[in-house]
Amino acid sequence: MNARQVEIFRMVMLTGSVTESAKRLHVSQPAISKQLRLLEDDVGFTLFGRNGNRLHPTDEATALFEQAEILYRGLDQLDRFAEDLRESRRGMLSVAAMPLLSQGWLPRTAANFLRDRPDVSLSLVARSTDWIARSVAAGRSDLGLGLFRKDELGVIQTPLLQLPLVCVCPKGHPLCGRKRIEVDDLAGHDLIAPSNFDPLHLALPQPLSQLISSQRRRLEVFTTQTAMELAMNGAGVAIVDAMTALERPSDTVVVRPLDQNIGFNIVLMTPRHRSNSRLVQSMQQQLVSDALSAQERAFQYVAACET
Hints:
rod-shaped; two-stranded antiparallel ribbon; D-Maltodextrin-Binding Protein, domain 2; nine-stranded mixed beta sheet; Arc Repressor Mutant, subunit A; 3 domains; alpha/beta
């Protein structure tokens, strides 16, 4: 018994006709009859009886057909499974991101990606850039989103987001009257900066980084979202990215751009020595597309804050 014989037998059972089966399978009627005879020789029993031009399956043929249908249902499921893999609708994704991205933009992007993929599982973790790079290089995470790192050998870093920085000042603060705040303007003020988890201050221009490090009163926090909360409650001036400020509007603060061309350069990390699945590639494309829109909104927000 071979696959072609089973295919022909099944078609004859479904149509009840050698002629119709030959049409559907695009073969001659003698070829159909020959394969049925060979199948009967293989299984050792008669499959069909004839009454005029009609074929009548034997009890054994009916039982064999039931088993053949189980096989074909399994093949259909396998075909659908392969299609899901081809169309990136099935599988497991692991994405690691710095906290700056993990509480707003990234969850929304991931939710949009998962909406039409009910059989895709997702692991989304917030970690430092150092941890993310090691995890992607080692294969524990499929994709990573973090700050650009020099001399990172284990991953490929693709520019993803450039986020300008802003100052979030409590209402009534002396800096609120400025349209744009220069680094020197920040001297002598309490500054809130996220630097004790991901070394964000190291990604800043040296004058600003030195100013933050030399403060008499240090206000270091876990995330940019926490920095925003402190500023909203009057603890000082928060230095955050424009995306964080845009997503946490408040009538208790005033947002002003910080100098020109100061911001965070965020990259998408992929493993250097391992290829990605179609599912991972689809997620990567979604991230790049959504990042372009998010970056545009951030720069528009900064321009609006200045005016």
